[in-house]
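Fold this sequence, please.
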Amino acid sequence: QVQLVESGGGLVQPGGSLRLSCTASHSIFSFDAMSWYRQAPGKQRELVAAITRGATTNYAASVTGRFTISRDVAKNTVDLQMNSWKPEETAVYYCNPRRAPTDYWGQGTQVTVSS
């Protein structure tokens, strides 16, 4: 059983910064990749950023240059540093470790972008 604890969500102003953190109960090296997804009201869940076991990163085109995914192996955490927020990025953000063929999901953390 994989336990995930997400933190860091909340209210952020447009153009502001926020950092999300996901802590896993297993070594993050045990996963093929760890990702962050988001789901806005009435929309499908979409990939925001991912980091593989080999530390390769990839980002959704809409966040490239503004968001940075990183990991701390010793702490089993994956963070998402997010800058220059846009109002349309209000969503629930989910941590997603993947160990093929299984995806694990956190409970999600709400981020609201509003002035």
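DSSP finds no helices and eleven strands in the chain. The longest strand covers residues 91-99.
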